[in-house]
Specification:
Layout (H helix, E strand, L loop, with lengths): L2 H12 L6 H16 L4 H12 L3 E5 L5 E4 L2 H6 L3 H4 L13 H12 L5 E8 L6 E9 L7 E7 L1 H47 L9 H30 L7 E4 H11 L1 H4 L4 E6 L4 E4 L1 H18 L10 E8 L4 E8 L6 H4 L19 H10 L3 E7 L3 E9 L3
Parallel strand pairs: 7-9
Antiparallel strand pairs: 1-2, 1-5, 3-4, 4-5, 6-8, 9-10, 10-12, 11-12
Length: about 400
C-alpha cells in the first residue's frame, strides 16, 4: 500500500461531511484492508504524519535494519523507499562516517545512551547529501531506534562559503603589506641586474666571448623572472576594493586576469585570447576584475587536472554587438553543466555536484555585472563545455 493511499484513508476516516462521501467510501475500503492486514488506526496516523514532515522519519529494528522510511526519503536521496527497506541504515551512510554511526547505534541498542544527534554524509543517487541524523531509543526497550534525517546540505555549503569569504577577506587585508614588502627587494634586484648587464661590456676583453654571452644569458633570465614577479605583485595590489566608476579597457583587464590564473591553468590547458572589441565599458576596474576572475577561474577549474593541455582550453572573447554594447565571453572545453543545474548556476549556494569544495561565487559575478547596467547568461553542453556571456554598456 502506498503512503498516498494511507493518507487518503486517514483523511476519509476522519471526515464525515457529505461532500467527502465518495472519498470516505474509498478511504474506508483502504482503511479496512489496512486494518485487516494488521495496521491499526494509530499506525496509519503515524504513517500519515511521517508523510507530512520535511524530515525523513525512520525506524530501525534491533539489528539496525530499516523497517520504516518516510516518503521524503525519495526526494532527499533519489532512491525508492521499497528498494532500501530491510537494509542496514549504516550501509546508506558515506563510508567515512560509518564507524561513528555504527558505534552510536550500538550504544543505543545496548541502552548505554538514549539518543544522539550528528551531521554526516548520506549516499544519494546524485552524490552525497549532508544530513542531520537524530536517533532515539524506542520506548519498547527492544533495541529499536526511531529517528529523523534532515537535509542540511545548503547550510553546510553556506558555512563553507562564509569560511572561504572570511579567508579571502583576511588575505585581502594582508596582501597590500605583502606586496609592499616584496616590491622593495625586487626593485633592488632589478636595479642590480640592470647594472650587471650594462657592466659586462667592461670585462668583455678579459674573458672569452662565449663566457660573457653565458653570463649575459643567465643574468637576463634572472631579470626576466624578477620582472614577472613584479607584474604579479602589481596584479595583487590592483585587486582591491575601490569606489566610483569609469571607463575600463576589458582587454587589458582580461590580460591581467589571465596572468592571475596562469599557474592554476598550466597543468589543465591553455589560454586563448580572441579580442575583437577595442572599446571601453562602464564600470569600476576592481569590480569587473573580480567578476571576470570568478568566471575565468570557474572555466579553468572545469578542465581536468593533468589533462591534455593542448586540447583543453579557456578562450577569452571580446566583441562589439553593434548596438552600443560590448560582449565578453569566457569559453571552456570542460565537462559542461547538466541541464538540471543550469538554472541554479547564479544562485548564492551553487556548487557543482562533482566539486569537493565551493568554487568561485558566480552569484557575485551576476550582481556586479548588473550593478553596471549589464547582463550575464550561460549556455552549456555536457561533455563539450560552457560559455558565460557578459554584456556591458560601451563608453561612447
Amino acid at each position: 500500500m502506498s503512503f498516498q493511499q494511507l493518507s487518503q484513508a486517514i483523511i476519509a476516516f476522519d471526515v464525515e461531511s457529505p461532500s467527502s462521501e465518495a472519498l470516505s467510501r474509498a478511504g474506508m475500503r483502504v482503511l479496512a484492508a489496512s486494518l485487516r492486514s494488521g495496521l491499526s488506526a494509530d499506525a496509519l496516523r503515524y504513517h500519515f504524519l511521517a508523510e507530512q514532515l520535511s524530515e525523513v522519519v525512520f525506524h530501525l529494528d534491533g539489528l539496525g535494519n530499516l523497517t520504516f522510511l518516510g516518503p521524503t526519503w525519495t526526494s532527499l536521496t533519489g532512491l525508492a523507499v521499497e528498494d532500501v527497506l530491510g537494509q542496514p541504515l549504516v550501509e546508506m551512510v558515506h563510508p567515512e562516517d560509518r564507524p561513528r554511526v555504527r558505534a552510536l547505534l550500538d550504544a543505543i541498542a545496548a541502552r548505554v545512551q538514549a539518543s544522539f544527534r550528528l551531521e554526516l554524509k548520506l549516499l544519494a543517487s546524485g552524490g552525497p547529501r549532508w544530513v542531520e541524523l537524530a536517533a532515539h531509543s524506542s520506548p519498547t526497550g527492544q533495541g529499536e531506534v526511531l529517528g529523523t534525517l534532515a537535509d542540511v546540505t545548503e547550510r553546510r555549503l553556506l558555512q563553507a562559503r562564509i569560511q572561504q569569504t572570511d579567508r579571502l577577506a583576511t588575505l585581502g587585508m594582508l596582501v597590500p603589506g605583502f606586496a609592499h614588502d616584496m616590491n622593495n627587494p625586487l626593485a633592488f634586484m632589478l636595479a642590480n641586474l640592470d647594472y650587471l648587464l650594462s657592466s659586462m661590456g667592461d670585462v668583455a676583453g678579459s674573458a672569452p666571448a662565449g663566457q660573457v654571452a653565458e653570463w649575459r644569458e643567465a643574468v637576463g633570465e634572472v631579470r626576466e623572472g624578477a620582472e614577472r614577479l613584479r607584474q604579479i605583485i602589481g596584479h595583487l595590489r590592483s585587486f582591491r576594493s575601490e569606489s566610483g566608476q569609469g571607463p575600463v579597457d576589458v582587454n587589458t583587464l582580461l590580460d591581467s586576469v589571465g596572468q592571475m590564473v596562469s599557474s592554476t591553468l598550466r597543468m589543465r590547458g591553455r589560454l586563448v585570447r580572441d579580442y575583437g572589441a577595442r572599446a571601453l565599458v562602464v564600470g569600476s576596474e576592481s569590480g569587473l576584475r573580480q567578476a571576470l576572475l570568478n568566471l575565468v577561474l570557474h572555466a579553468v577549474l572545469s578542465l581536468p587536472d593533468g589533462g591534455d593541455t593542448e586540447e583543453n582550453e579557456v578562450r577569452l572573447v571580446t566583441r562589439e554587438d553593434g548596438g552600443g554594447q560590448v560582449v565578453i565571453e569566457v569559453h571552456d572545453t570542460g565537462a559542461g553543466i547538466p541541464p538540471e543545474q543550469l538554472g541554479q548556476v547564479f544562485e548564492p549556494l551553487y556548487t557543482p555536484r562533482e566539486a569537493s569544495r565551493p568554487g568561485p561565487a558566480l552569484s557575485v559575478c551576476r550582481d556586479i555585472v548588473r550593478s553596471f547596467g549589464g547582463s550575464i547568461t550561460v549556455t552549456s553542453s555536457v561533455g563539450r563545455g560552457t560559455v558565460f556571456r557578459v554584456t556591458l554598456p560601451r563608453v561612447s
